[in-house]
Every structure is written in structure tokens, then in C-alpha cells.
């Protein structure tokens, strides 16, 4: 019976925002506008980091890597979501769904650990400034980025393999992309093992980075309080403010989405949270680092000045 159901279900159909009826055109315009700004912002950050030698530091290496990851992350989800707002009931094949889920999970976990690496970078910069260039060598930076991506690949392989070994009976996904929980609901069999795996992975990729970042900022604050002048303390904390803002929003949304009790789930809440961490959060990265970071703004002015010249 399980094998029969596996062969019968060959594609899924996203219900997405179908319950919003006549508002779907408005949603399309809003989401498309946000998406364009997200792509433009992240591409600007990657470009300006590459071309301006003042930004060839570990901090901006991590920032440009995060911006690149966020760009691909949104490309995996948003174009199909926008298409579904115009052309209703678009199907996606099982292999297509598995591919989308794999890249989504890989990049989402990669982003979590990249933010952790950025927290470690700020810790070294403030708590061990004289040894900063030695500790944050090119090899260390490459290792942290490779470790983040490798962790994402391993966790995604585990989750997606476990998911698509299940037999599916339903075809209507009550979501706008192949997220784990909406797809799992379509299975014909008990999914307790999958739920344990997913909760374990979610706990690991949220709580471990949060714990490491918290430790980093406790040590950072301890070092900042030792600075004699108020101006010095303000300058030191300013270097962390952008990162801390992104961390709070990113992990806040992820914790609510993946660690909340199953009884508190609802379609509307899940859609709202998904929109936040797939569309709004990727926009937050370039906005915060562009508007709050003096070095990035100076680099943009230099780039514009060279273009005008």
C-alpha cells in the first residue's frame, strides 16, 4: 500500500495564498517590490565588498558570503511563489519539491552558522584586537565558511532523505513552497520519527548558534565595560550593533517557526512567519548593514564618486 501511494503521488500543488482571493495581485506587487530591493541590496553588498580594498577584512568577507547565500536562498523560493500568485495551482514534481527543500534547508542552516561566525569575528576584534589578524586568518575565515555550508549540507541531506522516504497520499501543500512541516502533513503514515529528526535538527541549528553568540556577546560586553571613555565604549558597541540586530530578528523568527509547540500552529500564522524569514529577513541584512555601517556607506560614496568621475 505504501509503495502504491508513492507511485501515485508524482507532484504537489501549492495552495499558498489562495485564501486571500482578490488580494493576491496586491501581494504580488508588494512581494515583487521587496524581492527586487533584496536582490539589489545583497548584490550591492557583494560587489562593493569585492571592489573596495578598505572592505577586504574578515568581517566583510563574512558579510558578503551571507549576502550571497541570502540571494540564492531567495532565488530558490520567491520566483515560484510570485509565479503562483499570478498563475494559480501550479504543480511541482516530487523531485522538484525535494530539490527546493534541500537548497532551502542547506542555505537556511548555512545562514545561521554564518551569523555565528560573524559573532566570533566581533568577539576577537574587541576582546583580542592585537591578535585579530593572526586569529582571523584567511584559513580560519575559509574554515568557518566551509564549516557553515558543510553543516547545512549534512543536515539537509538527513532531513530531505527522511522526508521523501515517506509515502504521500495528499497532493495539496497548504503553503507557498516545499517547507518541511506542510509536506510532512501529506504523508499516509505515522511521522513521529521524522518529527523527532526535524525537531532535533531545528534545536541544534538554532540553540547552538544562539548559545555561541550569547557567550561571544557576554565576553564582548565585559570587554566594552572595561573601556575607560564613553566615546570608546560607544564606538566599540557600534561595530556590533548591526550584527546584533540581524541576529535578534533572524533567530527570533526561526525559533517561533520551528521550535513552537505543534498545538500552536495555524495556516495563517505559518504563512506570516514564512513570509518573514523568506522575504523580510533577507532584506534586513543589506538594509541594516548599509544604513547603520559607516564603512559600507563610505565605500558606496567612493564607488559612486568613481562612477561619476
Detailed description of the structure:
It contains eleven helices and three strands. It has 309 residues and is mostly helical. It has a single domain, classed as Rhodopsin 7-helix transmembrane proteins (Rhopdopsin 7-helix transmembrane proteins, Up-down Bundle). Strands 2-1-3 form a three-stranded mixed β-sheet. Helix 3 (58-86) packs antiparallel against helix 4 (94-127). The termini are far apart. The relative contact order is 0.14. InterPro entries: GPCR_Rhodpsn (IPR000276), GPCR_Rhodpsn_7TM (IPR017452), Olfact_rcpt (IPR000725). The chain crosses the membrane at residues 27-48, 60-82, 102-120, 141-164, 204-225, 237-259, 271-291.
Instruction: Tell me the CATH architecture.
Output: Up-down Bundle
Which residue ranges are poorly predicted, with pLDDT under 50 across at least 5 consecutive positions? 1-7
Q: What's the CATH H-level superfamily name?
A: Rhodopsin 7-helix transmembrane proteins
Summarize the biggest pleated sheet.
3 strands, mixed
Q: What is the overall silhouette?
A: globular
CATH topology title? Rhopdopsin 7-helix transmembrane proteins
Gap from first CA to last CA: 71 Å
User: What's the β-strand tally?
Assistant: 3
Domain unit count: 1
Strand order of the largest sheet: 2-1-3
Beta-strand fraction estimate: under 5%
> What's the gyration radius in Å?
21 Å
Q: What is the count of helical runs?
A: 11
What class do helices, strands and sheet pairing give? Answer: mainly alpha
CATH class call: Mainly Alpha
Main location: membrane
Organism: Ictidomys tridecemlineatus
Transmembrane segments: 27-48, 60-82, 102-120, 141-164, 204-225, 237-259, 271-291
Pfam family, one: 7tm_4
Amino acid at each position: 500500500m505504501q509503495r502504491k501511494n508513492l507511485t501515485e503521488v508524482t507532484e504537489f500543488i501549492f495552495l499558498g495564498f489562495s485564501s486571500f482571493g482578490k488580494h493576491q495581485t496586491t501581494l504580488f506587487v508588494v512581494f515583487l517590490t521587496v524581492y527586487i530591493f533584496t536582490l539589489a541590496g545583497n548584490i550591492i553588498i557583494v560587489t562593493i565588498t569585492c571592489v573596495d580594498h578598505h572592505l577586504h577584512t574578515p568581517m566583510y568577507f563574512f558579510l558578503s558570503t551571507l549576502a550571497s547565500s541570502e540571494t540564492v536562498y531567495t532565488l530558490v523560493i520567491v520566483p515560484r511563489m510570485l509565479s503562483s500568485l499570478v498563475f494559480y495551482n501550479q504543480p511541482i514534481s516530487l523531485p522538484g519539491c525535494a530539490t527546493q527543500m534541500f537548497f532551502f534547508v542547506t542555505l537556511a542552516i548555512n545562514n545561521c552558522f554564518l551569523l555565528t561566525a560573524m559573532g566570533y569575528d566581533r568577539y576577537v576584534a574587541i576582546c583580542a584586537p592585537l591578535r585579530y589578524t593572526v586569529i582571523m586568518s584567511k584559513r580560519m575565515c575559509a574554515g568557518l565558511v566551509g564549516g557553515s555550508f558543510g553543516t547545512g549540507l549534512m543536515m539537509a541531506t538527513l532531513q530531505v532523505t527522511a522526508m521523501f522516504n515517506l509515502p504521500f497520499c495528499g497532493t495539496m501543500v497548504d503553503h507557498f513552497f516545499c517547507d518541511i512541516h506542510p509536506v510532512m502533513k501529506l504523508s499516509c503514515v505515522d511521522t513521529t520519527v521524522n518529527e523527532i529528526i526535524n525537531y532535533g535538527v531545528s534545536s541544534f541549528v538554532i540553540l547552538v548558534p544562539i548559545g555561541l553568540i550569547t557567550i561571544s556577546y557576554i565576553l564582548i560586553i565585559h570587554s566594552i565595560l572595561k573601556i575607560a571613555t564613553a566615546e570608546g565604549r560607544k564606538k566599540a558597541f557600534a561595530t556590533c550593533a548591526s550584527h546584533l540586530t540581524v541576529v535578534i530578528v533572524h533567530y527570533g523568527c526561526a525559533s517561533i517557526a520551528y521550535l513552537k509547540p505543534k498545538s500552536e500552529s495555524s495556516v495563517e500564522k505559518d504563512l506570516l512567519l514564512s513570509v518573514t524569514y523568506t522575504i523580510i529577513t533577507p532584506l534586513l541584512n543589506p538594509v541594516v548593514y548599509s544604513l547603520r555601517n559607516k564603512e559600507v556607506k563610505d565605500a558606496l560614496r567612493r564607488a559612486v564618486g568613481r562612477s561619476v568621475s
